[in-house]
Amino acid sequence: MRTYVQTVLGPVPAGELGRCLSHQHVLFGYPGWEGAVLAPFRWEDALEQAESVLNHAKERHGLQTVIDATPADCGRKVDFLKAVSKRTGVNIVASSGYYYEGEGAPAYFKFRMAYGNAAEEIYQMMYREVTEGVGDTGIRTGVLKVATSAGQITDYEDLFLRAAARVSAETGTRILTHTQAGTMGSEQARRLITYGARPEHIMIGHLDNCTDMDELLKIFEQGVYGGFDRMGIQGFTGALPESRRLAEIVGLAGSGYADKIILSHDSVIRMLGDPWIYSEQDAKDLSRWNWTHVFEDILPQLQKMGLRPDQAEAMVTANPQRFFGA
Ligand SMILES: [Zn+2]
């Protein structure tokens, strides 16, 4: 049986995703960004910017598919993603789910936890977005995104884990996660599996921020995929030097998990709101945070460190394809 992935333009066979960046953001805005009146969102302007970034990655590095991991409460615009995909010919998969409690917009569903049936409502939201579409757009999401806090999974976040596992079990939709500060990844996997999701349908994300090899092995030993998906970010938001993650990837590959590792950048084409103001050090740390760093620098570097060319390439091609069912 052929497995299809739901993109913003419709289903695409999992085996035809090609080179894939599995955790990216075309747009991202922290809840409240709408208050940034100096830099309102201009559709055409943003579309041109997205087009130039994606076309560059496509023409120079063969990028064919992008998983847009933007949660619903962080500026997700599925109609915009559809326009970008149409313009560029790059497949884009949109996400269902909310961000972690500290930086998302938890007020509504926390209210429903007290005065409603939040668990059922979150499940209904995810199920509807995956099977019918977001709002009245008719554009369906293709992955479920869940996120947890540093050092803990709050009761609020756990509702999203339960809902995502249930929708995944019923529809086969894949789950990708945000871990904060390299923590709770093995616990995310354990709970998602306990709640009914299949291990091979789960990708635990942002392992770049974890230096604890015991914790990393506890994640992979559960049979899930793991995302080293913040390549190019160093320093900023606590990201570790890249040398640490490369060593971890090589160690994990040597331990038998080369076919479970997936690479991406977590980079954003357009941050919603006013432009960032950052220091010279920040600029240096983020100078390789773009949409091509993995292809240009990381894959060759992994080969220098001992991975076979096909093992490195699989981390952006065969592994995400297999994750989606190819
Ligand atoms: Zn992200």
CATH topology: TIM Barrel
* Major sheet strand order: 6-7-8-9-10-11
Name of the top-level CATH class: Alpha Beta
Assigned CATH architecture: Alpha-Beta Barrel
How would you describe this protein?
The protein is α/β, with parallel strands linked by helices and 326 residues long. It has one domain: TIM Barrel. 41% of the residues lie in helices and 16% in strands. The protein is built from twelve helices and twelve strands. The strands form three sheets. The protein has a six-stranded parallel β-sheet with strand order 6-7-8-9-10-11. Helix 5 links the parallel strand 7 and strand 8. Helix 1 crosses helix 2, helix 4 packs parallel to helix 5 and helix 5 crosses helix 6. The longest helix has 19 residues. The radius of gyration is 18 Å and the shape is globular. The mean pLDDT is 96. The protein binds zinc ion (ZN). Zinc ion binds next to strand 3. The site of zinc ion (ZN) has 4 residues, from strand 3.
What attributes does this structure have?
single chain; 326 residues; TIM Barrel; 12 strands; 41% helix
Provide the fold topology.
Blueprint: E1 4-7, E2 10-13, E3 19-28, H1 43-61, E4 63-68, H2 78-88, E5 91-93, E6 95-96, H3 107-115, H4 118-131, E7 143-147, H5 155-171, E8 174-178, H6 185-194, E9 202-204, H7 213-220, E10 225-228, H8 242-257, E11 261-263, E12 268-271, H9 280-285, H10 293-304, H11 309-314, H12 318-323
Parallel strand pairs: 3-4, 3-12, 4-5, 6-7, 7-8, 8-9, 9-10, 10-11
Antiparallel strand pairs: 1-2
Bound molecules: zinc ion.
Task: Write a short abstract of this structure.
41% of the residues lie in helices and 16% in strands.
